[in-house]
Amino acid sequence: MKAIGLRSGLLSIAWILLIWLVFIPPVLGAEVNNLQAAIDEYMNATVKTGRFNGSILVAQKGEVMVKKGYGTANFEWQIPNSSETIFRLGSVTKQFCAACIMQLEEKGLLSLNDQLQKYIPDYPQGNIITIHHLLTHTSGIPNFTNFPDYISTMMIPSPPEKTIDRFKNLPLEFQPGEKFAYSNSNYVLLGFILEKVSGQSFENYLQENILKPLHMEHTGYDHPEKILPNRASGYDASSEGLINTPYIDTSIPHAAGAMYSTVEDMYLWDQGLYGDTILSKASRDKMFTPFLSNYGYGWIITKAFGRKVIAHDGSINGFATHISRFVDDQVTVIVLSNFSHAQSSLIAKDLSAIVFGEPYDIPIEKSYIELEAEILDKYTGKYEIQPGLFAEITRKDQFLFIQVQGQPIIQLLPQTETQFFIQEVDATLTFITNEKGEFTEAVLHQSGKDIPLSRVK
């Protein structure tokens, strides 16, 4: 009786497994197809509205759900983007630099509590700035890419020590550890320290200790002069439409932003961070611990849709990038664009919303009204966004254009006489009058935030 019961039980289990195998895959397949269709609809809309051009990858629990290119890698030759297209990463480079620093700590070659003066003895106040401060952007060191001469000097080769000389004697903006202020200077310093401690260039150390172990064969330190198959050209918006982005010598961004990659390689990086191949769990836990403004070591740690997300975006001449890792759900979203104006972080958020069944908006082309030149001229001038950061609003023919310092020029299209929108990004700009009826300020509404702009001339 027991033997028969056991056999019956096994047969029942076998039937259950058979039913699961026969009937479940079509349901899962339908869900995947629905996900792919929703993502495709959304991405095609971003391309149609001029907001995106590039490649994306969406993965869940070790399975790539979508990997696809949209738009054009090179407009002069009309070469399409694909999942194998190579893009500059910009500040997504910082997470790789941070991982290298963590490896050096594991090897006992440095401590995150080391003072900066240990590696640059004559650095002013180097006795109160630590590697931890550099990693978390809490050093108070000014950001050299905000300097007025940055645009005019970015094409001139500058090894890390020369770049450091540009800001090292300037006063700190605050006492180390007191505040958060994003500064590319921090990661140029980290790149310098890495090279001094390891005895290798950042490029070579990265290749040997991160990229090779993860088989990231289409990722590296960018050198514009080298022939790099599948490399996308970078583009900026202008008053004349798309233009080729200005040249930047990649010795300038260095460990703060000089890398390139593909969505497929970035997924290898993501997966590698779940195990011990690159870093121990203790080091990963340190790297993903949020400090001031939720910034860890090369990553921002926050929540989206009620879920923990570890993310970072990047921006460099002609490119805008983002990676989001919902680690508890094992969901990864990677967005790489060869449009400098692409809102890659917003696109990644919307793609994540599609995965989790949360609300999102499909971009639509908006219509605009025509305004007389004398009305538009009331708004032209220089506006201060924050101390030291300005935007210039100009008119060309019947249109206004805005250019934030160090960023591409973008067209403003009128919805009303005082409210304008940006077609390429989800943003509006509203001009405000004072009690005399003069336009003295404006408010930029973007990503749920209101950013005031004060007219200075």
Automatic annotation (TrEMBL):
Entry keyword set: Membrane
The Peptidase S12 Pab87-related C-terminal domain, residue ranges: 370-446
Keyword Membrane: yes
Domain Beta-lactamase-related, first and last residues per copy: 37-342
Annotated compartments: Membrane
InterPro entries: AmpC-like (IPR050491), Beta-lactam-related (IPR001466), Beta-lactam/transpept-like (IPR012338), Peptidase_S12_Pab87-rel_C (IPR021860)
Cytoplasm found in the keyword field: no
GO cellular component terms, A-Z: membrane
Top-level taxon of the source organism: Bacteria
Chief place where the protein resides: membrane
Protein's recorded name: Penicillin-binding protein 4
UniProt source species: Candidatus Atribacter allofermentans
Gene: pbpE_1
